[in-house]
């Protein structure tokens, strides 16, 4: 399963930091630019949005800056007028409602009466719809993904607003944190590190702020903030997959004792069992009744193949019965098959390779398929072991 991890625990979160992190993560820049042009057209506003790579205390991040003094009189109406797909529009309207509800509760007025700087800024509209488009383009708004977040570092002390001096976190930020049960902590650094728009966006992006799973990181996006701190003012988003617990599956084990079959019959039976779906077959030398040498034929299979394989053993070997027990479980590694091209003596061959990983995503084993290796060895007249080594070198993990 694809999962995302947002990390505002290091230096907070804001709308522009989210935009930068999502673009850095691989968000569709053309779609982002298109929605910016749509905002300009619908609002009749003149403003510019610049996207640049910057360094924050030595770390490269993507910075998104909105340069505008334009106002947005009605945030909800503006969102409804924009050419957003359903998931993007729903997300944007939910975020806007969260912002409006928080400001309304803090100031004790209705949403229609709210005309505060935070809600009336073009920056806020750009942050919301831009995040919706970028998040959707990387798959974050899909119903089949999980988005986790750490706690939010909110800053410390006081912040100057158009309404005067406010404590950190500002009342609207604190209200959103309370409403959505978002954990936070103060920093040792003075200033505001989490904005109302930033936590509003986070409240609708993240599906959980606890029980964060072990993640196998695949892509990392880093967005830059505007604060000048003693540490990098950045927001990181990680896209990856979840490390599941060691997987189990149910199996059946079939056994029979054989003391009167030839090697040819035994070998033929083993081949037929594999062709019919057996997971593993073993012929274990033993001593049977009347001290005769023989074999214990053991077959591991899936439950649905149990009866067919038991019948096959009796049919091919003449055994009068096959033992089976209760259902058993076995631990299994995650496996994938890759087809690898390998060049041997100016001849290019292909071989399937089975790659096994443990629950932490670490490669445990790389095993080329024998039949594919054998064909290449026979064709090139090279030793089998040399072909195996050559194929293993070509595996791109």
What does this structure look like?
This protein has helices at 15-24, 29-43, 75-81, 86-107, 117-120, 122-137, 171-179, 196-205, 263-275, 306-317, 370-380, 384-394, and strands at 2-7, 48-56, 59-67, 146-149, 152-156, 158-161, 164-167, 184-186, 191-192, 215-224, 234-242, 247-258, 280-287, 293-301, 323-324, 328-332, 334-344, 347-357, 363-368. It is 35% helix and 32% strand. It is α+β, with helices and mostly antiparallel strands and 397 residues long. The chain is elongated, with a radius of gyration of 31 Å. 34% of the residues are buried. It has 12 helices and 19 strands. The chain folds into 3 domains: 2-242, no CATH class; 247-331, Alpha-Beta Plaits (2-Layer Sandwich); 333-394, mk0293 like domain (Ubiquitin-like (UB roll)), CATH 3.10.20.300.
How many helix segments?
Answer: 12
Task: Identify low-pLDDT runs.
Answer: none
- Output the structural class: alpha+beta
Give the overall silhouette.
elongated
How many structural domains? 3
Biggest β-sheet strands, sense, barrel: 5 strands, antiparallel
Mean pLDDT: 89
N- to C-terminal separation?
19 Å
Strand content: 25-35%
Rg over C-alpha atoms, rounded to the nearest angstrom? 31 Å
Number of strands: 19
> What's the helical proportion of residues?
25-40%
